Amino acid sequence: MTSQDKRPVVVGITGASGAMLAGRVIDMLLEMDTPVMATASSAGRMVWREEMDETFGSCLERWQDKGEFTYFQPGELTAPIASGTFSTRGMAVVPCSMATVAAVAHGMSDNLVRRAADVCLKERRPLVLVPRETPLNAIHLENMASLARLGVTILPPEPPFYLRPKTIEDVADFVAQRVIHALGLSDALPDHMRYEGPSGRA
Ligand SMILES: Cc1cc2nc3c(=O)[nH]c(=O)nc-3n(C[C@H](O)[C@H](O)[C@H](O)COP(=O)(O)O)c2cc1C
Predict the structure, then answer these.
(1) For atom 18 of ligand 1, which residue has the closest CA?
(2) Is the CB of 70 under 6 A from ligand 1?
(3) Which CATH number is 9-193's, of 1.10.10.10, 3.30.230.10, 3.40.50.1950, 3.40.50.300?
(4) Tell me: the pLDDT tens digits for 128-160?
């Protein structure tokens, strides 16, 4: 089943480890026929270069060929996703650095990822953060707690050990599926994209 709702999902990519997670979330949304509007911070692109075999530029081209996909530069503060009057289905920041967690928790909208997240907060739209840092200090935890109290889903990219994942791609698929569920879109997730693990437990 694919979605009839043509409002886009916003995906923000920041400079935390886990670039692969962003790739899988965008791939899955486009496979579900959901329009995607994405932006990445400059640190997000730096980490992408470190962690991924496929260049960010070639991924952008692939996503544009695959479905309704629009990319905005992080400095494009006139992009539609920077305004509350432009309707979206919500946003996932994946992976989400502690710097972006702090900025969003304190209303500091100094790039398009942070501004688009702030728009979701003020418009009370779904906002899902996939924070990645270890260990976490009290500042990180307090910022995440403030956001959780505002209704933000804090979704750390924890491996589902109980499903006995075999590869890092299995873990990425599981996390991407949880992000899609947290955005309220899991009804449109085709069966073949559901990671249930060797034991079949979701
Ligand atoms: C290879 C690499 C990996 C990083 N991993 C993390 C991480 O897992 N979590 C984190 O909070 N910051 C991480 N950082 C630091 C952030 O990229 C840095 O704080 C940056 O300013 C975040 O900016 P942004 O939130 O605008 O993307 C990493 C940096 C590099 C270069």
Answers:
(1) 15
(2) no
(3) 3.40.50.1950
(4) 999 999 999 999 999 999 999 999 999 999 999
